[in-house]
Amino acid sequence: xxxxxxxDNIKIDLSNIPNHVAxxxxxxxxxxxxxxLPRHLGHQEGMKRVVEIVESANKIGIKVLTLFAFSTENxxxxxxxxxxxxxxxxxxxxxxxxxxxxxxxxxxxLGNINSLPVNVIKEVNIALEKTxxxxxxxxxxxxxxxxxIEIVEAVKKIIYDYDKGLIDLSQLNEExxxxxxxxxxxxxxxxxxxxxxxxxxxxxLTYQAAYSEFYFSDKYWPDFDSESxxxxxxxxxxxxxxxxxx
Length: 246
Ligand code: IPE
Ligand code: IPE
Ligand code: MG
What we know:
The chain is of the alpha/beta class and 246 residues long. It is built from 7 helices and 8 strands. It has one domain (19-147, 187-232): Undecaprenyl pyrophosphate synthetase (3-Layer(aba) Sandwich). Strands 5-6-4-3-7-8 form a 6-stranded parallel β-sheet, with helices on both faces. Helix 2 runs parallel beside helix 3 (79-102) and helix 3 runs parallel beside helix 4 (118-131). The longest helix has 24 residues, at 79-102. It is globular, with a radius of gyration of 18 Å. The site of one 3-methylbut-3-enyl trihydrogen diphosphate (IPE) has 12 residues, from strand 4.
């Protein structure tokens, strides 16, 4: 099947689209560095790829797209860089919310947003509210997200429910444990993409990634356009997933 992505027609099997694709958008700083530009221009350029890839993911029928926007470890960066990232998120929501909503996309947040700057919390809540009834693609924004804290929080919630007599420990299993994670009710990622040549998870979706396929691209995130994204999908379509079977 040919899909017009605006540049090229790329062959992609529409009957084998991953349900959930998660992306570690990495390399904005190095992209800028390699051009002798300040890091914030890398983040700014990277934001354009976000818009582009959300659109192509939606076009090919992906059900859940997760974008790693800010990790619990990213607080180690300079205040100025953190402010830039937060402001870009606010701008993204303001500029794109209408189009996202018209495309029936539902925004979800993975992570703890309570410790974010108030204007960011406000904007994020507007986005959640505006798209809450949409039933098309879910766009997860992993924001102040860390997989380990997600698991620790899950354990705390389980203990809390146990104390209240809401859960029977003998009934707790690998599947219903997931209901305590931020990705509650969502399928596990079929494909995890990381750009910029780094080959690690960096505290991203470790529970959910148990059987994910991985795709690593050497391109920096601002160079990872929708064609690169569709190449990753095609690569996924040629994988043999066995899940421990034969
Ligand atoms: C990804 O690019 C964006 C975030 C982590 C928020 P980086 O800012 O990590 O870019 P590099 O890895 O320094 O090149
Ligand atoms: C992972 O990238 C976090 C995001 C893409 C938001 P980092 O650049 O923070 O990861 P490390 O530090 O290289 O592991
Ligand atoms: Mg990085």
